[in-house]
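Example 3.2
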Amino acid sequence: MSRKERVESAIREQLADLIAREVRDPRVQAAGVLGVSQVECTSDLSVARVWISIYTDDDKVAEKALAGLRAAAGFLRGPLGRRLQIQRPPELRFEHDVTAVMSQKLRDIVKDDEARAQDAAAAADPASVAAADDSET
């Protein structure tokens, strides 16, 4: 693992803890559960792009939480540098990571489709569905 990858991993771990413990911005706290999903640093480690997963259905709350994190970026930089023992911690640029939300929506769609298929099969032939249920148990 290269130094850059080690630093990115350490930043991800430490930022998750710092955001949970140190950020008091009401916009961030209103979002509920936040997760640091990925960190990508430039080659000279001067800038770190941080992808944040915000687990909420309200897009406005997510955007406000992201704005709160962007406002706290300068505050987070100091404690992050001290924890990682880096003389010049990277500039933090927060991005919204929507992959977790999208995967949850896709899972819900698949479950809904499966339920509809079972309902349609039950309506078409109730005896075959009962036999299939007996064979599964």
